[in-house]
Specification:
The structure is a single chain. The protein has about 400 residues and is an alpha/beta fold. The chain folds into two domains: about 240 residues, Spore Coat Polysaccharide Biosynthesis Protein SpsA, Chain A (Alpha-Beta Complex); about 150 residues, no CATH class. About 55% of the residues lie in helices and about 10% in strands. It has 15 helices and nine strands. Strands 3-2-1-4-6-5-7 form a seven-stranded mixed β-sheet, sandwiched between helices. Strands 8-9 form a two-stranded antiparallel sheet. α7 runs parallel beside α9 and α12 runs parallel beside α15. The longest helix is centred in the C-terminal third of the chain and has 28 residues. The protein starts with 5 loop residues before the first helix and ends with a helix. The site of guanosine-5'-diphosphate has 18 residues, from β1 and α5.
């Protein structure tokens, strides 16, 4: 941490009078977003500055005020923070502004509500001295009674952590912890953009996708004073929405494939059991579900492949096996060929039905079933032809 690299010197020079700034380069910037936290913000600033002094770290505390209507800004200034005004609302917007303004080689993010222990940031920073790019706190073992609602502790946080694990392979247990530290380099690599609380998930997703080394350290979590700014459903949905949008496999491809297979199965049952399937006193006619599942499933696959290629061709995601398979097998010509074949099958089945009707011969297969398969084939075929163009268009250089 004592090392001052050329980029850091440059940044410091840009920020102020050259020689003086370079020699007193900031090592750690503590960023605190603040929305009406007048009761606690000064204590947070003082604690962090106390740690700077005790550990001999050259540090700065940045409080990013997001239009507080109380005395938060004065309190923060009085306690020795640099206060920045960010007009764009939101936890993410405020943090991102703070990160962009931070001069430290290391950035610490925390809350201004005095729930995290800023008196001793050594355990948080230690992994960064040992080659890690980011440290995330884990509050689960040291939650003061009443600090976290039961639903967040047992449902919300574990559910989001599990999705992150599924989508990125991250092993972070407390993915919603707001106490973290990372290097300037890691910050640059992540390319963060979320304006809301979903920033917490974005950081972990991008850290893993960019191959950063992430450590987790135990931390304490105290009862908050003042009002929480977190809205369980709105913010929970924003996390889920973010994760799905950044994970096209799980939004489109996996569900699409499952729906397609269920659709094919249902249509198969329709052809076999013409009277439907009797369950107790009810009779299920799989003919309807079959068509719907197959059509929705294929459309999901087509959209999934198209978005995948779009993201890969613009360097949003790396070129993975889906991209390679799609480029080889989902070319416009092949898609049109497949579409034509499937429409032809549908037309053939309709011709068969017509023959059955004119000749009066019973073919021994469910008429409704055949009609449903024929109709579904034509819809799926037409969608594949349209999808072929969509996919080709998305991959245009
Ligand atoms: N600047 C800014 N800060 C916010 C906003 N929403 C929350 N915060 C701050 O972000 C931190 C975390 O919010 P908090 O309500 O404690 O959420 P929790 O820790 O997830 O329960 C606190 O310091 C809040 O003051 C916002 O819209 N703008
Ligand atoms: Mg908080």
């Amino acid at each position: 941490m004592a090392i001052v690299d050329p980029a850091e010197t440059k940044r410091a020079e840009l920020a102020g009078s050259a020689g003086e700034r370079a020699s007193s380069a900031v090592q750690v910037s503590v960023v605190l977003p603040c929305l009406n936290e007048e009761e606690t913000v000064a204590a947070c600033v003082e604690k962090a500055r106390g740690w700077f002094q005790r550990s001999g770290v050259r540090g700065e505390v940045l409080v990013v005020d997001n239009g507080s209507t109380d005395h938060s800004a004065e309190e923060a200034r009085r306690a020795g923070a640099r206060v920045i005004d960010e007009p764009k609302r939101g936890y993410g917007a405020a943090h991102l502004r703070g990160f962009a303004e931070a001069q430290g080689e290391v950035i610490v993010m925390a809350d201004a509500d005095d729930t995290y222990d800023l008196l001793d940031l050594d355990p948080l920073i230690e992994p960064l001295r040992n080659g890690y790019d980011m440290t995330v706190g884990n509050r689960m073992q040291r939650i003061e009674p009443g600090a976290m609602t039961w639903s967040h502790r047992v449902i919300g946080t574990p559910a989001i952590s599990l999705l992150l694990r599924l989508f990125t392979g991250s092993r972070i247990a407390d993915s919603q912890c707001g106490l973290r530290a990372f290097t300037q380099e890691a910050y640059q690599k992540m390319g963060l953009r979320s304006s809301g609380m979903e920033l917490a998930s974005e950081m972990i997703l991008k850290a893993y996708r960019r191959g950063l080394k992430v450590a987790e350290v135990d931390t304490s979590y105290a009862v908050r004073k003042g009002e929480t700014k977190l809205n369980t459903f709105r913010d929970g949905w924003r996390h889920l929405r973010f994760l799905l949008l950044y994970s096209p496999h799980y939004l489109f491809l996996v569900p699409g494939l499952v729906l397609m297979l269920l659709g094919i199965l249902s249509l198969g049952i329709t052809l076999g059991a013409s009277g439907g399937v009797t369950i107790g006193t009810l009779t299920w006619q799989p003919v309807f579900a079959g068509g719907i599942l197959l059509v929705v499933g294929t459309n999901a696959m087509v959209i999934g492949i198209a978005t995948h290629l779009f993201a890969a061709s613009r360097d949003i995601i790396p070129e993975d096996w889906v991209v390679r398979v799609a480029r080889q097998y989902a070319t416009l010509e092949r898609m049109l060929g497949l579409a034509f074949a499937i429409v032809a099958i549908g037309a053939g089945l309709d011709a068969l039905l017509f023959y059955e009707w004119v000749s009066g011969n019973d073919l021994g297969v469910s008429t409704a079933g055949l009609a449903a398969v024929a109709q579904t084939s034509m819809i799926v075929g037409a969608n594949l032809a349209l999808g072929g163009f969509l996919i080709a268009l998305m991959d245009v250089e």
